[in-house]
Amino acid sequence: MSAVMQNAAFREIGLDFSYELLEVKPEDLRRKALDELTDPRVRGANVTIPYKVAIMQYLDEIDLEASRIGAVNAVVNDGGILKGYNTDGVAALRAVVETYGSLRDARILVLGAGGAARAICYKLAGNASEIMILNRTIKHAVALSDYLSSLPECRADVTADSLRYESLSNSLREADILVNTTPVGMYPETESSPVESKLLRSGLLVFDTVYNPLMTKLLLDAKEAGAKILTGVRMLVYQGAATFELWTGRKAPEAVMMDAVMKILKRKAD
Ligand code: NAP
Question: Which end of the chain has the smaller Cβ count within 10 Å, N or C?
């Protein structure tokens, strides 16, 4: 998805850049990170699962937000100096604020406590009033909640519990926004949802970070229940746009990037 999106953007702006996919074996990470990324012809890279944390030890500098999040998804090569950034959290925050408005008094329920949750919760915690993290493995949720609460930039009251019907039902009653950061509902398990449909209601904003399929079961159920919805594609495109701007110093052509991604997702849905 990222290659299609970024190459469409380079073409639109008329930049002679090309985004290529590189498969990296764990034992090659160090060599690839240092040799290939510092090549003067390489401007940067995206880093994906499972290397978002492992790459950090090979970088010369890490942006403050990426270091707080503890993961890097974008690298810039500045004359052989490698700097790491995280554009996932800022992209999610932007998408949520555009859809919901100010988060000042918002109570947000987040499902999942993995890498995506870490980036998203970090940014939400700096803006919202309350964040409840529910996760299959409770100790991961508690660790994330304790960590966020310890940061000086955290303004939200952050709490954690295990992901069970009862905790979900209670938390959803109080929440203004639901964010799914678990892979539940992702292709090919498209009939699954992390939330029973009867718990969804109008007045709620439901944001599913899963973007394949575009309309997950959770989002279809939310729509049916009269809730507002936000698809994961917006976050995907915004993180791509933020990364494009880091690499090129140019404003990203977001509409072109969105079109490129939507074309693929629509083709997959047919
Ligand atoms: P991750 O680090 O592996 O974390 C996955 C999280 O989901 C963990 O908290 C895990 O719980 C939980 N989980 C996994 N399977 C589950 C299940 N069957 N039932 C309940 N909980 C389950 O993965 P990640 O990097 O956070 O990515 C998660 C999802 O976010 C991806 O699948 C992707 O769709 C989405 N994402 C979207 C974007 C975007 O731009 N839209 C960007 C990044 C990620 P445990 O702690 O119990 O293992």
Answer: C
> Does residue 122 contact residue 65 with C-beta atoms inside 8 Å?
yes
What is the extent of the structural domain holding 60? 2-86+234-269
Which residue, judged by its Cα, is nearest atom 18 of ligand 1?
A: 184
In ligand 1, which atom is closest to the CA atom of 52? 25
Nearest ligand 1 atom to alpha carbon 113: 9
Which atom of ligand 1 lies closest to the CA of 112? 9
Alpha-carbon separation of residue 84 from 152, 156, 158, 250 (angstroms): 22, 26, 27, 19
**Ligand 1 binding pocket mutation candidate from 118, 180, 182 (most atoms within 8 A of CB):** 182
What is the residue-level pLDDT of the chain in tens, covering all 270 positions?
A: 999 999 999 999 999 999 999 989 999 999 888 889 999 999 999 999 899 999 999 999 999 999 999 999 999 999 999 999 999 999 999 999 999 999 999 999 999 999 999 999 999 999 999 999 999 999 999 999 999 999 999 999 999 999 999 999 999 999 999 999 999 999 999 999 999 999 999 999 999 999 999 999 999 999 999 999 999 999 999 999 999 999 999 999 999 999 999 999 988 877
Q: Out of 111, 209, 215, give the residue to mutate to test ligand 1, the one with the largest number of ligand atoms within 8 Å of its CB.
A: 209
At 215, give phi and psi (nearest 5°): -105, 100
The pTM is what?
0.96
Whether 72 and 36 share a structural domain: yes
Residues sharing a CB contact under 8 Å with residue 15, sequence separation 6 or more, in sequence order? 248, 250
CATH number, residue 8:
3.40.50.10860
Cβ pair 96, 230 in contact under 8 A: yes
**Co-location of 121 and 132 in the same domain:** yes
How much distance in Å is there from the Cα of 49 to the middle of ligand 1?
A: 11
